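Structure (tokenized):
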């Protein structure tokens, strides 16, 4: 249905924001659910974010997804913070009730649901996480919650990996970046949580022959969908999980938080977004 003046409202705030796939995904779910609702992109400068969040919380807006560079501001501005957002140190979901701002992090559950949707049991063995930024923090938190028996970390700046371990995985083994292939020995899951592999940038190279044959490679990067990291792993016969799963996985609980219902199952979110990323030539 076309939105009326009584439409429910939510959105996504970031800078830049034009690349975001969330408005298209949310619009498809809103339409399929027959909701009187709008989900808008907001390009907000860093210096305006706090004022914007506080002002929006006093309107009829149900909440916001938050992306770079505002995930820390979103956490700082909140009146209430979920344990996940607190532990990760960033929020990608703000919900507004009676002027109160609640912050949550659904990147972590989004990552786990992407694995489970592909039949991957995260706790079946050691996991190697590459990276130590915001995505890595959410993923390491998620793996800890899922009971992964051993977490290994490798990051270009070792000190950032050490900080992450201190906060979220005190027993993690840290491999120097140039020695990251050592983390493949006996591993079950390898996650690229760096920005390597993004369109136009360098790929993340691994010596996949060193990994057990049932290792799963998962990427947080989804543009392109088939990163060099995933392509090389697949060429060695390993299973792969692309970055769209995490994106869709974080959007589902966000939709529920905004609109009070689950996204309609009949929408194939992965196919919808894949078609946007890889339009038929
Ligand atoms: P951050 O900027 O917080 O972290 C970037 C990470 O990449 C750091 O660990 C950094 O290492 C590493 N890195 C950057 N450049 C290089 C390089 N040239 N060589 C080696 N390592 C490098 O970004 P995020 O954690 O927020 O995002 C990381 C990726 O995850 C992005 O591609 C993002 O699009 C994706 N993402 C996907 C989501 C999804 O839903 N699928 C959700 C959130 C993020 P160092 O510490 O040394 O700087």
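Design, position by position:
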């Amino acid at each position: 249905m076309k939105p009326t003046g009584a439409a429910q409202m939510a959105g996504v705030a970031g800078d830049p924001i034009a690349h975001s796939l969330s408005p298209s995904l949310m619009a498809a779910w809103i339409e399929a659910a027959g909701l009187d609702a709008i989900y808008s992109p907001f390009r907000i400068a860093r210096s305006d974010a706090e004022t914007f969040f506080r002002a929006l919380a006093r309107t009829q807006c149900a909440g916001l997804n938050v992306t770079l560079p505002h995930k820390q501001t979103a956490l700082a501005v909140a009146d209430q913070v979920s344990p996940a957002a607190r532990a990760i140190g960033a929020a990608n979901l703000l919900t507004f009730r009676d002027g109160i701002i609640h912050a949550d992090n659904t990147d972590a559950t989004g990552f786990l649901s992407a694995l489970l949707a592909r039949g991957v049991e995260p706790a079946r063995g050691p996991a190697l996480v590459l990276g130590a930024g915001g995505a890595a923090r959410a993923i390491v938190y998620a793996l800890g919650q899922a009971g992964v028996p051993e977490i290994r970390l490798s990051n270009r700046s070792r000190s950032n990996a050490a900080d992450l371990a201190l906060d979220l995985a005190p027993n993690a083994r840290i491999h120097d970046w140039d020695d990251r292939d050592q983390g493949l020995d006996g591993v079950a899951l390898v996650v690229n949580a760096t920005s390597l592999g993004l369109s136009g940038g360098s790929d993340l190279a691994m010596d996949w022959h060193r990994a057990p044959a049932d290792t799963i490679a998962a990427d947080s990067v989804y543009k392109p969908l088939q990163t060099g990291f995933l392509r090389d792993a697949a060429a060695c016969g390993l299973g792969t999980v692309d970055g769209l799963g995490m994106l869709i996985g974080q959007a589902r609980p966000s939709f529920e938080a905004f609109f009070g219902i689950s996204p309609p199952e009949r929408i194939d979110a992965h196919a919808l977004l894949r078609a946007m990323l890889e339009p038929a030539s």
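Reviewer-requested clarification: DSSP finds ten helices and twelve strands in the chain. The radius of gyration is 19 Å.
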